C-alpha cells in the first residue's frame, strides 16, 4: 500500500517517464529507479557496476527489502483486468540443496 505522498510521487514518475521519447517502457532499471524515487530511498549508480543482490530495493531505515518485478501487458484496455502470480521459494530452507550452504539474510550476493 502506498501512502498519499508515494502515490503522488508515482504519478509524477510515470508522467515524466512516458514523456521521455527514448524510454521505451517502464521495466527493468527504469522501474527500479522509479520505485526508489517513490519510496524516497537511495539508488546505486548503475555506471559504478551492478551486482545481483537478494533485494532490488532496500529501505535501510526500516530494513524492508523488495524484489522488483514488472509485467508488460500489450493491448491493455480501460476497465480490463489481468492477473499474474509470482512463485517464491523459501531460499533459506533450500539453500544447502541449491549449493548456497552459507546463505543468510545478510548475504549480499549469490
Terminal Cα span: 30 Å
User: Shape, please?
Assistant: globular
Give the helix/strand class.
mainly alpha
Mean pLDDT: 77
Largest sheet: 2 strands, antiparallel
Strand tally: 2
* Regions with little confidence, pLDDT below 50 for 5+ residues: none
What portion of residues is helical? 25-40%
Question: DSSP strand (E) fraction?
Answer: 5-15%
Q: What's the arrangement of strands in the largest beta sheet? A: 1-2
Order of helices and strands: HHEEH
What integer value in Å does the Rg equal? Answer: 17 Å
Textual characterization of the structure:
- The protein is mainly α.
- It is 29% helix and 5% strand.
- It has a two-stranded antiparallel ribbon.
- Helix 1 packs antiparallel against helix 2.
- The longest helix has 16 residues.
- It is globular and about 45 Å long.
- The two termini are 30 Å apart.
- The mean pLDDT is 77.
Secondary-structure map:
Blueprint: H1 4-19, H2 28-39, E1 57-59, E2 64-66, H3 91-94
Antiparallel strand pairs: 1-2
Helix pairs in contact: 1-2
Amino acid at each position: 500500500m502506498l501512502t498519499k505522498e508515494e502515490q503522488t510521487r508515482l504519478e509524477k514518475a510515470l508522467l515524466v517517464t512516458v514523456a521521455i521519447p527514448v524510454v521505451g517502457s517502464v521495466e527493468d532499471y527504469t522501474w527500479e529507479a522509479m520505485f526508489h524515487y517513490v519510496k524516497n530511498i537511495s539508488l546505486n549508480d548503475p555506471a559504478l557496476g551492478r551486482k545481483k543482490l537478494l533485494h532490488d530495493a532496500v529501505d535501510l531505515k526500516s530494513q524492508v527489502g523488495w524484489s522488483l518485478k514488472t509485467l508488460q501487458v500489450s493491448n491493455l484496455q480501460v476497465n480490463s483486468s489481468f492477473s499474474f502470480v509470482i512463485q517464491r521459494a523459501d531460499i533459506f530452507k533450500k539453500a544447502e540443496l541449491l549449493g548456497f550452504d552459507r546463505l543468510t539474510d545478510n548475504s549480499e550476493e549469490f
